[in-house]
Amino acid sequence: MNVDLKEKGDNITEETMSLISSLPSHADAQGKKLCKYQGTWYYFNILQGVVNFQRNFQPQDTDIILASFPKSGTTWLKALTVALFERSKHRSSSDDHHPLLSNNPHGIVPFFEIDMYLESSTPDLTKFSSSSSSPRVFSTHMPLHTMKEALKDSPCKIVYVCRNVKDTLVSLWCFACAHEKTELSRSRLESMFKSFCNGTIFYGPFWEHVLSYWRASMENPSHVLFMRYEEMRSEPRGQVKRLAEFLGCAFTKEEEESGMVDKILDLCSLRNLSGLEVNKSGRINTVDHKIFFRKGEVGDSKNYLTPDMENEIDMIIQEKLQGSGLKY
Ligand code: PAP
């Protein structure tokens, strides 16, 4: 076993270390090591979370899994899903007991591999109740093929949110710099751009990720819902209604007439969530809640990527998605 693979503070078992030593690996521009497992690049500690999840997760038929490539709208999707299921319990969005007012969406809907299964192979799932009004809701950045065996043909519902690749890349860069409390540096953007394009970025290749969910949504639309961040921005009412229908909690006519759709959208808006005390000052793991909220603008990448960078990404995506029916 190669002990050098082990990074300080990581909870990696001997067995996983031995697995890692058999996998392709590389270091990112910061020197942090990643390995390629089942077609996807993971930091070593996160791979432990993936393996723990694969071995131990027991799905329930009513489970809901919110999936995404990082920086594609996960926080928003989590908030909307929580708000949809909580709406019967909280008539008013200013209700002090609403979970979104006292917790960040990531604290309410944990990631399998980054939160729940990172430190423990058998996390306590008892706090996740499943009742007819609120099923268990989890999230992940893993591609669908990595979850397939663990889900054991469960009819659980999976919602995938996808975002324009260039905006995703810029959002990732801004997040990384904010997390490390460094200035936005061009060299950092360029190195992330390279690993994004050659597929070696954390959770990459992007195209494999998005295609795993896209194909499943085409084959089985009642199992996988494919959403787009840009459509959520441009027609939020239609998209939140679509989400509610898929989740089995469609808005009633009375709810629509009473303005419930807009109430949920207001509660979950970037402006509202980022202004809440819990999101201005709290943190989850080592991440300040506030850095999950930035601009939320469609097309913001234009302000940072050069035309050459944009062309290169466009060409790669066009080539990789060819024939899939998925368009950007
Ligand atoms: P994650 O992968 O770390 O969970 P994720 O929430 O997927 O991050 O993506 C963050 C992006 O969503 C940020 O985009 P930006 O960097 O281009 O601004 C963030 O601003 C945006 N975002 C967060 N919350 C919301 C929200 N409530 N509505 C719209 N966009 C949001």
UniProtKB/TrEMBL annotation:
<comment type="similarity">
    <text>Belongs to the sulfotransferase 1 family.</text>
</comment>
<dbReference type="GO" id="GO:0008146">
    <property type="term" value="F:sulfotransferase activity"/>
</dbReference>
<dbReference type="InterPro" id="IPR000863">
    <property type="entry name" value="Sulfotransferase_dom"/>
</dbReference>
<protein>
    <recommendedName>
        <fullName>Sulfotransferase</fullName>
        <ecNumber>2.8.2.-</ecNumber>
    </recommendedName>
</protein>
<keyword id="KW-0808">Transferase</keyword>
<feature type="domain" description="Sulfotransferase">
    <location>
        <begin position="61"/>
        <end position="325"/>
    </location>
</feature>
<dbReference type="InterPro" id="IPR027417">
    <property type="entry name" value="P-loop_NTPase"/>
</dbReference>
<dbReference type="Pfam" id="PF00685">
    <property type="entry name" value="Sulfotransfer_1"/>
</dbReference>
